[in-house]
Structure formats: C-alpha cells, structure tokens
C-alpha cells in the first residue's frame, strides 16, 4: 500500500503560537486565551485525529476584540496613516505570506484536507489579494461634480470603521484574506472569526501581522462558535459593518442580528450553479470543466457547477464519459502528491452529503457512480467518492438544494430557451457557465442567466481584480475588485463655497 509522507504536525504548526498547550486568539495586539478558558479540538479531516487545541472564543471574547478594534479605529494611529503607508504594510504582508508559502500550504492541507496543489493555489492567491488591494489603496477613489457656481462638489471615500468578518472553512486562508485585504486597504479595522473547524492559517497570518507591527487592535482574530462569537460580531452596536461568507440560512440570521444598529452588510452565500453544455461544445473541454466545476475542493465550493444541464442529443455520450472520468479521480490524503480530491471537512458534513445521496435515490434519480466511503488507509477520514445523479427532475431536492459535496446532478434540455429556464429555476444565483462553440449563443445564454459570476467555455477561474457575489439568495454585495473595496467605504459628499459671502436668503 502507498504510504503518505506527511511532515509531522508539530513541524507544520511550529510557528502557530501557544499559551501552554493552547493556540490562543489575537486580540488588541496580544495573544490571549478565551475568557471562559474553553478550548476546541481541531482535527485533520483525512483521519480525524486532533492536531491542535485552539482557544474557543464566545460572545465575551468577541466583545473584547470589538472593544480593542473600536479603540484602534477611534483613538489609534491607524486612521491617520497615509494610504501609501497602509499599502506598504499590505505589500509586506503579501511578501511575508510568500516567504512562508509552503508552511501555509501545509497548514491548510492539514486542517482542511484539500490536496496540496489546491492549498498552494489558495496561498498564492491570498498573497496576491493583499497586493491587489495594496495597489488599490493609493488609487483615486472620489468623483467631482459639475454643479452650479459658486459650489465645488466632490466625494471622498472613507473607512466604515469596525468590521466584523465571519468566514467558512472551505478556503481557510483565502476567505480570511478576501475579507481582511480590502477592509485594511480602505483604512478599516477588523475582527475576523474563522470557521470553528479551520482557524489555524488565520492565526498564523496574525503572527505575520504582529511581526509587521500593525497598530494593536487593527486586526483581531477570534476563533470560536458561530452562534456565540459570530453572533456577537453580527449583533454588536459597536460594529459598523458585518461581512459574512457561509450558508444561506446562517446569512439570514446574520442579517437579522445586524438590523439592530442597521450596520452595513455584505453576504456571500450558497449556490446551486448551472453548467450548461450544448451539443456543439468542444466535448473533452466540457467534460474536463464539468469535473473540475463540481469536484474541485470535493465540491465544497459555493460556486460549484453542481447542476450539469446537458443538451439531450449529447446526453448519453456525455454522461457515460463523465462517469468513466469521475471514477478515475484519485481520492485521498491531501498530502499525497497523487491525490486529486481530498476528504470532506467533517464527519457531520459527510453525513449531510450522504443524506442527500439517500434523498436522491428516494426521489427516483439514478445514481450513476460514487457516493461511497473509502476504506483501507482512508477509512478514518471523511472521504466520499465522486457521485453523479442522472435522470433527475427539476423539483427534486437534490436539484434545488445546495449539497456542498462531490455530488453532481444532471438535467437535460431540448433547446436554448429550455436550458435557460432550467438554469434559472433556483433560489440561488451565484454562478453559471455555458459551453458551446457558437459565440453568439454563448453570449445570449450568459446574459439570460440570473447569476453574479459566469463563465463561457471554462469553469471556476476567479480573479482578485473582478467582482465576486451572487444574485437572488446567493448574497448581497460583491467582494473582490474595486467593488470589494467600495464595500468597505462610506462615501462622503463635500461642498465648498467658492464665493465666501452671505447668501442673503433671510433679511439681515
Ligand atoms: P456556515 O454558515 O455554517 O458557517 C459560516 C461561518 O458562519 C462560520 O464561521 C460559522 O461559525 C459562522 N456562523 C454560524 N452561525 C452563525 C451565527 N448564528 N451568527 C454568526 N455567525 C455564524 O457555513 P459553512 O458550513 O461553514 O460553509 C458552507 C457554506 O458557505 C455554503 O453554503 C457555501 O456555499 C457558503 N460559501 C459561500 C461563499 C461565497 O463566496 N458565496 C464562499 C464559500 C462558502
């Protein structure tokens, strides 16, 4: 049997701070345990063995971090820093991530289970995200307006203030950076809560932030439970903005909690994204991206191409080939360089996915392959083989609901109008793709999709430069690109009277 040579856990986590045996949280520039003393066992999803004990923050810890952030924003040196100085710090942070690239890659693979090549992509992208926003910090952001004399009118963008940021576990480092980079570039201060299961790379990032001497309280990282620490970030009257990435149900509760002080809100939520393949598509390219669209990160991707919508004349040949290819995907430990797909994040997540496999069968869909637990050396991990459901109908739960695992559902269409109707028949609207060699048809279909991120003849490429977010119940607002920066700013209108004299409106 092939054994995986993984660096030992202590080596991978050598630079993650400890107080005693516990990885602490980063609050107000200091490393602290949870006020309650609680800790949470963090495990490797490839074998469910404990890799660290992390301070388990609750509402009190989040409140302490919010207070530290408040002081940093209201009284600290941060808001007086020139944009170019903030930019320089972020450029240095990007360089520091690059310098520790292999370490970050190992931390995310150890903690999330994803294959090394996926973690490497994330870490490179994370450094570049800081660079992109460092560059944007010094670019012009205001507008001037040609209004009647004697007024001169223009706008400036100012930071919103204290930002509560809540992220999921599927891209532990990258999701944290998508939140921190634009917020810091725009001059805000942050309290970030990583997902319960995957706090380690965000905490390692905090050590770089500490070493670069960001003013205390500008970045706070509070690991802990969503319903306590996360809820406090959403509800606190001292928080000016909450940015959340996660499930749609949780997003709704964050929105309720945020209503108390009408804080600014960004939500990046779930999806059930359509991937439409026409009969005239380049066959092998469409097969390749259909696989990548659903099985990258074991399907635990908000924008996954989880509904494959196939033209009927192509259907049988395409599904046969897809099944053949899916069965060849090498599922395994992320540290094995041969691994193409890792485990699911937790036993609970695997059970959720298995529950959908049972639902799909009960609903009468045909499971063409996969959905099996892996045995042997992988028996202790949360592995599941790539699954494909065919012969579905649009109202089935497996077609309507986000599964968030390696399960593809196939739908079939007659013509263009039919394809568009099926694609948009969803409460979600995050992403979508179309494969065809007919350029005009590709554009027609994309323009009809009710989705925020779309691709033609490709699936999944994501760019720091371009906006990310969903229509319908996939979210509110956009991250990344200039849109992501703007979402961390308030716009101030400034009017200057160029003729300083009484107006004479009221008699003297
Ligand atoms: P989740 O909603 O359970 O958790 C996300 C985060 O919210 C975690 O940090 C969690 O602790 C926190 N949280 C949970 N309950 C909370 C509450 N009541 N108040 C405040 N915070 C709370 O989601 P998950 O299972 O960790 O992640 C999977 C989901 O995330 C999927 O639905 C996926 O589509 C979505 N996602 C979306 C994007 C995007 O950009 N649109 C990206 C990645 C993941």
Task: Tell me what the structure shows.
- This protein is α/β, with parallel strands linked by helices and 508 residues long.
- The chain has two domains: 9-269 and 474-492, Aldehyde Dehydrogenase, Chain A, domain 1 (3-Layer(aba) Sandwich), CATH 3.40.605; 274-456, Aldehyde Dehydrogenase, Chain A, domain 2.
- Helices cover 38% and strands 20% of the residues.
- The chain has 16 helices and 23 strands.
- It has helices spanning 9-12, 59-74, 83-99, 101-112, 116-137, 172-185, 200-211, 226-235, 248-258, 283-295, 312-326, 347-363, 397-400, 416-424, 439-448, 481-486, and strands at 22-23, 25-27, 30-32, 39-44, 49-55, 144-145, 151-159, 162-166, 189-193, 219-221, 241-245, 264-268, 274-277, 307-311, 366-369, 387-390, 407-413, 428-429, 431-435, 453-456, 471-472, 475-476, 489-497.
- A seven-stranded mixed beta sheet has the order 15-16-17-14-13-19-20, sandwiched between helices.
- Strand 19 (431-435), helix 15 and strand 20 (453-456) form a beta-alpha-beta unit.
- The longest helix is centred in the first third of the chain and has 22 residues, at 116-137.
- The structure holds nicotinamide-adenine-dinucleotide.
- Nicotinamide-adenine-dinucleotide binds next to helix 8 and helix 9.
């Amino acid at each position: 049997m092939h054994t995986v040579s993984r660096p030992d856990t202590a080596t991978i986590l050598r630079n993650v701070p400890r107080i005693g045996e516990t990885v602490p949280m980063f609050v107000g520039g200091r490393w602290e345990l949870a006020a309650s003393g609680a800790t949470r066992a963090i495990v490797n999803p490839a074998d469910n063995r404990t890799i660290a004990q992390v301070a388990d923050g609750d509402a009190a810890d989040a409140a302490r971090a919010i207070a530290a952030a408040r002081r940093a924003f209201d009284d600290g040196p941060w808001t007086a820093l020139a944009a170019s100085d903030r930019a320089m710090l972020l450029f240095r942070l990007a360089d520091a991530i690059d310098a520790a690239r292999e370490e970050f890659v190992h931390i995310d693979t150890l903690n999330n289970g994803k294959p090394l090549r996926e973690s490497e992509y994330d870490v490179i992208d994370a450094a570049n995200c800081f660079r992109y926003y460092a560059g944007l910090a010094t670019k012009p952001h205001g507008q001037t307006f040609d209004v009647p004399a004697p007024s001169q009118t223009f706008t400036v963008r100012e930071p919103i203030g204290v930002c509560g940021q809540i992220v999921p576990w599927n891209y532990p480092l990258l999701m944290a950076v998508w939140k921190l980079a634009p917020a810091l570039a725009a001059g805000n201060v942050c309290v970030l809560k990583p997902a319960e299961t995957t706090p380690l790379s965000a905490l390692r990032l905090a050590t770089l932030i500490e070493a670069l001497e960001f003013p205390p309280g500008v970045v706070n990282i509070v690991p802990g439970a969503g319903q306590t620490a996360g809820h406090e970030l959403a509800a606190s009257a001292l928080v000016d903005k909450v940015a959340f990435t996660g499930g749609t149900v949780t997003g709704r509760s964050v929105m309720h909690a945020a209503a108390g002080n009408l804080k600014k809100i960004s939500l990046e939520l779930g999806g059930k994204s359509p991937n439409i393949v026409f009969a005239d598509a380049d066959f092998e390219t469409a097969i390749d991206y259909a696989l990548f669209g659903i099985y990258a990160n074991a399907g635990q991707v908000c924008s996954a191409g989880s509904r494959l919508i196939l033209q009927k004349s192509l259907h049988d040949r395409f599904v046969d080939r897809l099944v053949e290819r899916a069965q060849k995907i090498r599922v395994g430990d992320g540290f094995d360089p041969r691994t193409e797909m890792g485990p699911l994040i937790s036993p609970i997540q695997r059970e959720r996915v298995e529950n959908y496999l049972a639902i799909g069968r009960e609903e009468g869909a045909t499971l063409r392959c996969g959905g099996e637990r892996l045995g042997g050396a992988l028996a202790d991990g949360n592995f599941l083989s790539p699954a494909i459901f065919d012969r579905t109908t649009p109202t089935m739960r497996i077609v309507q609901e986000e599964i968030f695992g390696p399960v593809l559902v196939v739908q079939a269409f007659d013509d263009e109008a039919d394809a568009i109707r099926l694609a948009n028949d969803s409460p979600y609207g995050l992403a979508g793709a179309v494969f065809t060699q007919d350029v005009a048809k590709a554009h027609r279909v994309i323009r009809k999709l009710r989705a925020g991120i779309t691709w033609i003849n490709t699936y999944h490429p994501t760019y720091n430069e371009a906006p990310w977010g969903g229509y319908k119940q996939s979210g509110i607002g956009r991250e990344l690109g200039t849109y992501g920066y703007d979402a961390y700013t308030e716009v101030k209108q400034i009017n200057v009277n160029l003729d300083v004299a009484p107006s004479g409106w009221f008699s003297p």
